[in-house]
Amino acid sequence: MSSIDSFADDIYNALQSYSTQVDNVLQEELIKLADDTKNELRTDPSIPKRTGKYKKSFYVNRTARGRGYIRLTVANKLFYLTHILENGHENVRSLGKANGTISKDVHFTKLAKDDRLILKGNRTPGHPHWKPAQDRLNRKQAEIFKKIGEVGK
User: Fold this and answer.
1) Which H or E run contains 89?
2) Beta strand pairing status for 89-97 and 69-76?
3) CA 153 – CA 138 distance, rounded (Å)
4) Phi and psi for 25 in degrees, rounded to 5?
5) From the first residue on, what is the mean pLDDT of each consecutive set of 10 residues in the chain (153 residues)?
């Protein structure tokens, strides 16, 4: 009976060792993938470079890590610019307080709630950069999972 118990213990230890190795390899690959995505966003030519601060401020945040799981987040420190750069925005200029007359020569005018005259101008186009990076990340992540799944066979 003891030989069966030792055999079961040997199988259990081998599976634990294999599981730990796969987990370590997977977590290392996912960390590399997150760093690659961060660097890809930093060098993305579709992001306009005015001062360069937005491109430099991408980072990877390791939110959680444990046995069998890891959670990484690729983000930008200038998060308030992300939506504007991704989707574009309308150019608006305040012309000061309205004195009751609006010139017919000025197009796209309106009065703001505090009686300021607002000149609405053209629209700045968006520069989609998160969606393509996320699509590439998802493809690479699927390849990693497939490769690790094939190793076990």
Assistant:
1) strand 89-97
2) unpaired
3) 23
4) -65, -45
5) 80 89 88 94 87 92 83 92 85 58 50 59 82 92 84 58
Q: Which two tokens stand for residue 150?
A: 């094939």
Whether residue 48 contacts residue 127, with contact meaning beta carbons closer than 8 Å, is answered with yes
Task: Work out whether the CA dihedral 7, 13, 16, 20 comes out positive or negative.
Answer: negative
């890891």: which residue's tokens? 70
**pTM for the full predicted model:** 0.70
Neighbours of 62 (CB within 10 A): 12
Q: Where are the alpha helices (DSSP H) in the chain?
A: 2-42, 53-56, 79-87, 130-151
CA-closest candidate to residue 26, choices 134, 153, 138, 147? 147
Do the Cβ atoms of 51 and 57 come closer than 8 Å?
no
